[in-house]
Specification:
single chain; 228 residues; mainly beta; Jelly Rolls; seven-stranded antiparallel sheet; 2 helices; globular
């Protein structure tokens, strides 16, 4: 693994009010609120079992970013159900903009994102589905495809033991990916550009949640990254 460092700040968003995410794109149905100046995401239909079961969604930042970036945000889980995931380098498989009208419509169903017509990295970092609570990991996948390319232990406690926001950072430099929480390296991976398709370029970033999870976010920042 080579050495690299954060460089210029490319983007900053406090995620503190509706105005801060006015240009963001929601795919799927979610309730988006801002209690105490932090963005809260939760299922839009918690009392409807059928809609709640399919109540997964993805909130995209509208900006396009280069490949070599470090994305940081603060995360606070409020429930112990569902899943939180972060996407980066998301774009059409032929290089189209993620929102290009030629791409198939997306409404939050997971298969559209890993088996559809887009590429990207997606790292699930708070996995509290009933079948996964006995052994909690962070999973990095690369798409197109459903390639599980790296895993790491999940250090986040359940919501009843949370005292404050956790500092998250997902970063890429060339073929390398890293995920850290509160400065602790959770996983890292080197993409050889062959086993799971070519090394991805730049694209969009986004936050995904699965039904059941209520979580809050703040202080989104994107820095350029350079090798040292």
């Amino acid at each position: 693994m080579r050495n690299w460092t954060k460089d210029d700040l490319l983007y900053e968003n406090p995620l503190a009010s509706e105005a801060d995410v006015r240009d963001f794109r929601m795919e799927g149905e979610a309730c988006l609120t801002f209690p105490r100046e932090r963005m809260r995401l939760e299922n839009a239909h918690p009392s409807d079992p059928e809609k709640s079961r399919h109540g997964n969604y993805l909130l995209w930042c509208p900006m396009d970013f280069p490949a070599d970036i470090a994305v940081s945000w603060e995360f606070l889980p409020r429930t112990d159900d569902g899943l939180a995931m972060f996407w980066m380098a998301a774009a059409g498989r032929q290089g189209e903009d993620l929102f290009d009208p030629s791409l198939a419509p997306r409404d939050g169903d997971y298969w559209q994102y890993h088996r559809g017509d887009i590429n990207g990295f997606h790292v699930s970092y708070y996995r509290r589905n009933p079948s996964e609570r006995h052994f909690q990991t962070c999973n990095l996948r690369k798409s197109h495809g459903f390639y599980l390319v790296a895993q790491g232990a999940d250090p986040l406690p359940n919501s009843r033991d949370v005292k404050d926001f956790y500092q998250m950072e997902a970063a890429r430099c060339g073929p390398e990916f890293r995920l850290s929480m509160n400065g602790l390296m959770v996983l890292r991976w080197h993409d050889d550009g062959q086993s799971f398709g070519p090394v991805l370029g730049g694209g969009k970033i986004g936050f995904r949640q699965m039904a059941g999870l209520i979580a809050e976010y703040r202080n989104l920042k994107v820095h350029a990254v350079r090798a040292t």
